[in-house]
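Researcher: Re-running this chain for the archive, since the previous output was lost when a drive failed. Same request as before.
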Amino acid sequence: MRQVFVLSAAAALTVAMAAAPALAADVPAPAEPAAPAAPTQFDIAFGVKYTSNYGFRGISQSNGFGVAQGYAEAQFFDNFFYVNGFVSKVDLPTRATAETDVGVGIRPKLGPLTFDLGFIQYGYPGERRFMDPYNPVEYVTPAGAFYGPAILSPRNSEFGEVHASVSAAFNGLTVGAGVYHSWDFLGLGAPATYYNGTVKYTLPAEFLNGMKGNFYASGELGYFQLGTTAARLGAVKLKSYTTWNIGAGYTYENLTVDLRYVDTDLSKKDCFLNSGDPAGFLNGGKSNWCSAAFVATVSLDFTLSGLQQALAR
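Model: Regenerated structure tokens:
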């Protein structure tokens, strides 16, 4: 599951400029404003990254270890319509070989606001049903009753999610808010809705004293409202929780280095309830997957149009 990884365009704020008439003959007329860039009817954004701990809404999806990730996105009509894909190594109870996501959506603009309305399908190829071998339960069939491992996950954890978000940029400050809803989270039969707010500030160039690149600070506050699993999985009420992260980063051309503090308000027992961390079966039902963590990420991001411009120089 993407950590807050739904690909979105930064909101653009256009300032109209009008040239005032000269008040004296020795006062030069203002320069004409630069012509706006021509809309790009088609582009491709893609990149790779390595993160020291892949988390989804505050919960580790990599058992606290580093993983490699990649993405690609086709953008049409000046990034109004997009189709994207994301892949990441994961370490989950169902032993999926990877996480593979596919998304589609639109990014309409209204004045200083940019909206992102879309759908994501989360996939986990190669997974197997997760069972508890330490606490067998009784199963009753027409042929008779028998005891076996408790089934803790569905056969298939794939799920879909719709989302809507909005962002706006003001002189280096970008603020946003979003809502994400799944009617069958992780195939558990439980509804799930995530609400979040984000903020990012990029330092002005004059603060860098001639240094190339950009420094930024950003943060997110989110609330994940979770429902009850299907009866076949025990009708378990999952624990809703709050998550947050704050960090800073440096971007130079295509390279970004990001350092971030991530945390949730889940207890270790509630974390085990939500995550199914296998370690919890051996330590009294506790998990560290939702605990505070410092995460370092190095990423390389490109666009097809950017590469074409670089080759044309």
